[in-house]
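[step 3/7] fold_predict: job queued, chain A
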Amino acid sequence: MNPDWRNRYELAVTAAKEAGRLALRYFDSDLVVEWKKDQSPVTLADREAEDLLRKRLLGAFPNDGFLGEERGDTPGTSGFRWIIDPIDGTRNYVRGIPLWATLIGLEYRDEQIVGVADLPALGQTFRAIRGEGAYRDDRQIHVSQVKELSKAVMFYSSLSWFIKAGRQKVFLELVKRVQRQRGFGDFYGFLLVAQGSGELMMEHGVHIWDVAAIKPIVEEAGGQFSDWDGQPTIHRPDVLASNGILHNEILRILANSRPESQTDS
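[step 4/7] structure written:
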C-alpha cells in the first residue's frame, strides 16, 4: 500500500474518533441550535468538531486540500483533499436520536480513496481504503447477495426529498417492488447496505460532504455507488447505493420515470 495513502488513512480513523468523542460530550444536552440559509441546523459541536479535524489533518499534511461543511473549502497542492462532515445527521443529533456520525472522506486527484464514519453514540467505526476492503471496527463487512428486487430491503431518508425532486411516483414504484422499506436516512442507510443489512439506499438532496466518505466504504464492501443515471460521482444530489447485483435493475426503473412536473405537463 502506498505509504502516503496509508498514513492518511490511519490518521483519518484516529481523528474521526477524536472528533466523535468531542461531539458526544455535547450530545443529548441543551445545545443552542442555529439555522443556516438552507434551513439545516448547526451547533457549537459541529463547528468545534470540524475545527478539530482541520487542525489534526492539515497539521499533519499541510499541503492537502480541505473541504468542510461548516467552514468551507481550502485548496491544497498535494493532490489530496479531505472532505468532512463533522456531524452527519445533525437533525437527529439535536433531537437526541443516536444516529449521527463524523464523516471523513479523502480524495486523491478526484478519486475517493478513503472513507471513515465514526458513530460515537453506537460505539462503531466504519472504514475503508481502496484495495483493502471495508470494516466495521475490526470486522470485515460485505454487501448482501440478494438477487431479486422482491426480496430486497430498501432504505431512504425522507419522502419529502423525492416530492421536492418530483420523483415520488418512482419512489412508490420501488416501494411496491421491494420486500421492505425503512427510513434510515443520512449516512446510516448507506452503511447498512455496506454491511449487508439491506440491498439499496436511495437519496436525493445530498452534498459532497455527505457522501465522500460513504462511496469508498460501499464500494470496498462489494457494492455499487452512483447517481440516478449510473455515473459513479459524488457531485450530484441524487444517489443510489446497492449491493451491485440489483443496481442496473433499479437504474432502469429510474430511467423509465420522469419528474412529475414533466410527466404531468
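[step 5/7] annotate
The two ends are 54 Å apart (CA to CA).
The chain is about 35% helix and 25% strand.
exit 0
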